[in-house]
TrEMBL record:
InterPro entries: SoxW (IPR041737), Thioredoxin-like_fold (IPR012336), Thioredoxin-like_sf (IPR036249). This is Thioredoxin-like fold domain-containing protein. It comes from Ciceribacter naphthalenivorans. The lineage of its organism: Bacteria, Pseudomonadati, Pseudomonadota, Alphaproteobacteria, Hyphomicrobiales. It holds the Pfam family Thioredoxin_2. Transmembrane segments: none annotated. Residues 50-133 form the Thioredoxin-like fold domain.
Length: 194
């Protein structure tokens, strides 16, 4: 009995270590160790991501955002989600109300908060997906191929990253139709937990 209790404690401790929550930075934002730290020059970041065979995703968050916390604790900590994003995306975090300098694709220098206003992002978290090549005359808000405002469940979240990676935005299948098709296929196969 004591032996099985000790084994259970060890397994529980290992589970806690493997499900490590993101650290909180000085700016109050959750920090994933696989997020990219850059100079926030969007054109340079797109080029760097493309050179690595990845796509650029910018994520806007804010201090105290309960939906951001849930995204980190429940979605980004999931190995399937985390591993897919790490393999296919370069993710750069912006503070919705931050003062760090950002360079827009049109060359304008802004703060994070003025970039959020210029590009029209008002919710956190908001994930902005950029194309592989940019027209430098078009600011990020118009150049984005997709935007995911708010927090969603694992499958919707992951499917958005897959849809963008597969360039679904170039085809006729809207994201909602793509997502519904996958959900229905999983449901039919008995692989969807409701």
């Amino acid at each position: 009995m004591l032996k099985s209790l000790g084994l259970s404690c060890i397994l529980f401790a290992l589970l806690l270590v493997s499900a490590r929550a993101a650290e909180i930075g000085d700016d109050g934002l959750h920090k994933e160790d696989w997020f990219s730290v850059t100079f926030r020059d969007v054109a340079e970041d797109v080029a760097a991501a493309t050179a690595e065979g990845k796509r650029l995703a910018i994520i806007f968050e804010q201090r105290g955002c309960i939906y951001c916390r849930e995204m980190h604790e429940k979605i980004l900590s999931d190995p399937e989600v985390r591993d897919y994003i790490k393999a296919n995306y370069m993710v750069v975090q912006y503070n919705m109300f931050g003062d760090e300098e950002v360079t827009d694709t049109d060359g304008e220098a802004l703060t994070e908060k003025s970039a959020a206003r210029k590009w029209g992002y008002i919710f956190t978290p908001t994930i902005v997906f950029l194309p592989e090549r940019l027209d430098k005359a078009i600011p990020v808000g118009k150049a984005a191929v997709a935007t995911m405002p708010g927090a969603f469940g694992k499958l919707t979240f992951l499917n958005m990253f897959r849809w963008v990676r597969d360039k679904g935005y170039e085809g006729d299948e809207h994201f909602q139709v793509y997502h519904a098709r996958i959900v229905n296929a999983l449901r039919a196969a008995g692989k969807l937990q409701e």
